[in-house]
Amino acid sequence: MKTILSYFPNVLILFIFLSACGNGPEWRKVNSGTDASLSGLWVRDNNDVWSVGNHGTILHWDGNVWQQEASGTTHNLYDIWGADDEMWAVGDGGTLLKWTQGAWQTLDLGINNRLDSVWGIDKDHIWVVGFGVALHYHDETWDIEKNETWLRDIWGQNRNNLWAVGSMNNYDLAKWNGETWVENASEGPSTQAIWGSDNNNIWFVGGNIIPGTSVIRRYQNNEWTTALERTDWAQLNSIWGAHANYVWAVGSFGMIVHFHENKWERFDMDSNAGLWSVLGTDEENVWAVGNDGTILHYGASQ
Questions:
Q1: Where are the domains of the chain?
Q2: Helix (H) or strand (E) holding 69
Q3: CB 3.0-4.6 Å disulfide test: which of 44, 86, 127, 213 passes with 48?
Q4: Residue 22: pLDDT over 60
């Protein structure tokens, strides 16, 4: 006896193919298990993701669920970075934490400054910047430089191509000269974050919360140019890309924008929670975190 599929065999084949493929990548909210605002991300691989935030919150994603880890501090944490089997987290009151041998340890450097960002070439060469202070770890020693700047984010490829953004006198960009941070760009709206794919493709983002302004600048061919400036969007707080032509930026009021095929486009989400960090491993595995425990994941549906 024939069924309807006997007459339409290709329908069955198409149904099986689409079921196996699932839907394409999209942003979706993931339960964080906390209402603490989250500010920093470190993605080791698809099943090993870390986030830090207010009140000493540290969360770990094991591929199935986010779980809280003991940090040993109640200070707000703003950033996290790692190399090999070690990770570092920084925050208020000079808080500097190190993950080693399966636990977080507090390092006391005798400073009380807010620390905003941590980044390194490897676990033996690490930089930290914040409000009125810059740290450099090398030769198993921390160099501490007190200053009158407020640098908020770091990115680099090596010691000769290392950048930081924030406020430095009347400048919004600084470059490492091998010993200290020096002014490198002209004035502009508040700059929040920086990322690059290589020496000739570097982006930094910022703007103003009120009035809502998004600013994106790009470094190519030895000069900085404005890639985007809009007064109908919102301040952008973080930027990351899989490569030079596939970049994400996130910001205030749930702002998510994407650079692809040489243009920036906005993604609309149901949430208006401010987003403070975006990071991933490739085009189909991207995370973003923000206020009130918000965690978003961009990837294929399961």
A1: 27-300
A2: strand 66-69
A3: 44
A4: no
